[in-house]
Each structure stands twice: as C-alpha cells, then as structure tokens.
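pasting for ref. prot 1 ->
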Amino acid sequence: MSTTVAELLAELGGVARFGILSAKVGRETLEASVASGDVVRDARGVYALPEAEEATRVAVRLGGVLSLTSAALRHGWALKSLPDKPHVTVSRGRKLGSRSRLAHVHWADLDPDDVCDGVVVPELALAQCLRLLPLDEALAVADSALRESGCAQLLARVAEEARGPGSRQVRAVAARASALASGPFESVGRSLCDEVPGLHVEPQVQIGAARADLVDRRLRIVVECDSFAWHGTRGALVSDARRYNEMVVDGWTEIRLTYEDVMHHPARVRAVLAEAVALAELLAQRLPDGPRAA
C-alpha cells in the first residue's frame, strides 16, 4: 500500500519542505495533493495539512493569536502529534461564550512585540512548547527548530532566559536537543531512550558505511526508528537487512522500533530497551576487555 502525501506529512510532524516530500512521493504527486487541497503550501515553501489554515481562521474568529503547538506549526516546526484543536491565546477578560469550544484557549495579555501576523513570535512559541508540553513532545519541537537556520541562537536564548515553573524542563530540553534528529519519530524515540537507566544514545552516528539513528557507543546498542514511509520498498528492505547483518556480526545489538510503538506504546518500548541494556551489560562482563569502542 502506497503512502499518501497527507499520511507522510502527518508522520513527519505536520510540516515539511519541498525537498523531503518530493524525494519520497515525486513532484507531480506533491503538486496534485496541493491542487486537491489535501496539502497546503505557504509562501516559504513549507507544506502542511489543511488544519493549519483552519487554525488561522479559528484564531481570527476568537479575536486571538495562534500559540503553543499551533504557532510551532506556523513557524515550520514539526510535532509529535497534531493538536486536535488549535491553541489560541486571547486577552484576559475577553468573553468567548460557546466559541471557546473551537480551540484550546489560553488567556494572557501579550505585548505587541510578542505577536506577528496573528501568531506568537518564534521565541515565545518555543518557550511555550518547551515549558508546557510533555518532555518527548517538547524535544520534538526543539529538535525541529534546530534544523531551521538561525534557531540555535534562539533556543539558547530561550533556555538562558527561562524563569519560574517549568524552567528546569526548558533548560533540560534545550541541552538535549539536536539538529541531527531526522524528525519527531526519532526525537520521541530518543526521549524514550533517555528514560532507560544506563542507556545513553546519540542521534545519527556513522558506523562503518552505515548511519544509525540512535547509538549507545559504550554498550554497542543501535536503536533504529523504522518507518514504513521510508522503508517500504524492496530496495530499502535489502539495504536494511545487509546493514543489520553487518552490525550483528560486528558485535552490535540492534533494536528496531516502529512508529506505532514509539508514538502509542511507550511502555512496551521502554521495556524492550531495558532488556537490551541488561543483555549488553551481561555480555560486557563476559568480554575480557569490555565493550569495544565504536
């Protein structure tokens, strides 16, 4: 079964640039999806799902501005999952009545400098996401922001200026964020790895001729985030099988995580990773020189 542009966009976190999408589905298919309304394209060449335009209309109707993850999408940052309703910030005391059901409403009196074109500015949007989202979702946003030019300084400033409740998480996420993460799937997988005692992974590590998604060099554990959208062809299957065999015979333990398990069954993933760490530690004790360096 082929993957549609909309399905691919959802897996990529709701937004993506032309090069990524066209490489997978082809230019003609991408343009057809835009023409049919399944996908929308903004002036920056960023593609998104139609919900992005609907969110803007909701914010205007409520007399507010897009914030939190809805603002993140407008700034071109990928998410673990799309919000079921737009996040909209309105002025304190504003009466919305039944219209409040159209969005996740946040009340705050924003300064004029905090808003541009109906969306909170990138610095505020990033601070909101890192402070208020669950850790894995915050990491996905931070990683995505770092993949955009100029956002490294933005992230550093947000972390440095963080104060009050949630500021510890802001600094922790900023310190762990990496532009090397390929997308939210890998970011959330890395966050799950961080919850497993003894497991310390790095993103996108070169091992011989192959590049692995997440690697613990000390334990020689490779964690691959296997998405059907990227590995659904016979050529990809052959390539992955060869790489897997080469790593195994070279003494690596390879764990392959699916999108569905990472996003929807985190306890199952943590249990498997914990067992992999225990096995690697046991093997290390049996080797006279301990685990070999990568």
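and prot 2 ->
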Amino acid sequence: MDKDLKNSQEQETNDSSEVIENQKQESKKSKKQSKTVLKSKEKKLKDGIDILTKNNEELKDKYLRLVAEYDNFRKRTIKEKTEIREYTKNDVLKDFLPLADDIERAVQHLNEIKNIEATIEGIRLINQKFIDFLKSKGIEEITAINEEFNTDYHEAVTRFPVEDDERKGKVIDVVQKGYEINDIVLRFSKVVVGE
C-alpha cells in the first residue's frame, strides 16, 4: 500500500507538474498571442496615423493652393478694373478732343469777329455738338424748371417767395444744371425753390 500510495503521490506530482507545465506553456502562448494582437493593433494604429497624416497634408496643400488662387484672382480683378477704368477714361477723353478743337477755333475767331451772326451760330453748333456728345455717353440733363422740388435730383440753394400758389414747392430757377447717367445722378441740379 505504501507503494501504491507512493505511486499515487508520484503520479499526482507528475500530474501537477504536467498541469503547471501546461499552464506555463499556455501562459507563454497567451503572452505571445497578446503580443501578436498588440503588435497587430499597433500596426493598424500606425497605418491609420499615416493615412490621416497623408490626408492632412493633402488638405493643407489644397488649402494653400486655394488661398494662392484666390489671391491671384483678387490681384487680377483689381488690375482688370484699373485697366477698364483707364480705357473708359481714355475713350471719353479721345471723343472729347474734337469739341476742344472747336472751342479753341471759336476762341481764336473771337479776335477777328466780322460777322456776329456767324459767330453766334458757330457757338450754337459747338453747344449742340457738346450736348450730342453727352447724350452719346448716356448723360442727360435733369429737368428742373417748374418741376416739384425732389431731393433725389435737386439741391435747394435758396427759397424765394412766390405769389402764385401753384409755384410753391416747385423749382422756379436753376442755378446749375444737374446730370444723370443711366438713372444715376452725376450731379444734382442746384435750384431755387418757390415758397
């Protein structure tokens, strides 16, 4: 019996050693699997970080290009506006030169006036040419005489008493003509208003 007991104890010791050994091996496997899982997760996270970094760089590049493109657009627009303004100014001034020539000839002619009627007619022609020039540029005179005083078109210089009730609140005299272009006032008419 002692022998059986001894064998049994040995068997238990062997079994328990085996169990401990199995546990150690399972623990090693578990640690290896944990390390493998951790390395796999770490690799996935690093790959994710790399992808996000790459996307961030692409977005930053697109943003910088967009900002540069907008800045170039803004500069180009300013340049184009300046060129258009200069072209328009030059175009108007070029069309004004024949009128300047006519006025200069009229002034030179003043010293040699022989026929007053011809001089008056010449000045009327120059005036009509100037009015036609303004109309060709879309500039029109603002009508004021006998119109109701309107602050959108008229600037009252003074008020003058009138006896006729119908003329009260109306323009009775124009001190300086006003002009508009495409329904935009260039200069208000300076007027005298009846009261």
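Helices lie at 2-110, 116-136.
The CA atoms of residues 34 and 40 lie 10 Å apart.
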